[in-house]
Structure formats: structure tokens, C-alpha cells
Amino acid sequence: MPTDIPLRCACGSIRGTANAASSKTGTRIVCYCNDCQAFARFLGRPDITDLHGGTDIFQMAPGRLRITAGMDALRCVRLSDNGLHRWYCGECKTPIGNTRGPRVPFVGVMHSFMDHAGDGRTRDQALGEPIGVIQRETAIGTVPRRAHDASLLRLIGRTVRLMATWWLTGLGSPSPFFDEQGAPRSTPRVLTPNERQAL
Predict the structure, then answer these.
(1) Looking at residue 150, what is its pLDDT?
(2) Which domain holds residue 92?
């Protein structure tokens, strides 16, 4: 059943709500890509990934995510010129979420920003178990396979369908990360190739 999940960074500077979040209104996945692992190293937060370097992410409509406090602490980094906008708290380095850009109706909210303790339910109870993994081949060590993991093709298909629905129903906006003109609410820091390589 969809529910509103409180959002909170580790220091409490940035707060908000993920509205109507459930396994039916979004997609929970674990991503083992090199960029997500590099983002954790950039933040100095190895605790946000699992033992294999995976990040637990809930893909949802931007229009359902509200940031109600702490916009002045919001920061953004891009690992390359064409990389995702990766949002985090500038005070405590809690990762918040990933976006492609203002015209793409999608935000991948990090598990570390969802306050499930404040919600009173576990992550599995609120969002269901992850339905699949992305880029298992770049994980650290061997990630155990689960019988219910969806194939990459099914995951992509589900994401595309949800994004189309969000766009058609107006849930692709407003985004808390971009203003009405599409400008990022925090100027992204774009890493140089040397900085990216170092991560």
C-alpha cells in the first residue's frame, strides 16, 4: 500500500517526504555500477554501499518527492560532463538521489535519505524487496543471485513504462532539484577526468 515516507539526511539539515511510495509506484533496485561506487568514495561514505559495492535505490517520480527544509545545504556533483546529477547534503555528505536532467521524469532516491525508522516500517515493508540488480559484473566479489531478480531488459521496460506514466500524468514535475527554467538548484561540480580516475 502506498505511503508517505519521511526523508532526512544524517545531520537533519535536509528533510522532506517521498509521497505515495510503494513497490507499485516506483522501482527498488540495487546498483553495482562503477559510478555509484565512485560517488560513495567521493562523499567519503563507504557505509552507503553493501559489501559488494551496491547502492539500494528507489526510482520514483520527481513530482512525488518534496524537500521541505535545508535547500541551502543541497549540493550536486557530476562525475563527468554527461554524467548523472548526483545530489547530496553538503553538511554530512548523505547522498540524496540521482537525476538525469530537468526534462527526464525520474529520480533515484538513495536508501540513506529515506528515514524508515521515522516511518515505523522496514524498507522491505514500505517498498518491497529489490526487484533486480544493475551492473552485477562490476560488483566487488560475487553477488548472490536471487530467484526473483528481474532481467535487465525487464527492469528497463518497467522504468520506461513508469517514466511515460509520470510524464503523461504530470508527475515528472515539479522537481525539487531543478527550478522552473530547468536550472539545477545547486550548481553542479563537474569532476575532471583526473579527479574521476582517482575515485
Answers:
(1) 77
(2) 3-198
